[in-house]
Amino acid sequence: MTKPFQKSPSSLEKLHIGFSDIAPLKKEIRLAEKEERETFTYKGEFVLVAYARYLVQYLEGLAKEYQ
Question: How high is the pLDDT of residue 13?
Answer without folding.
Answer: 62
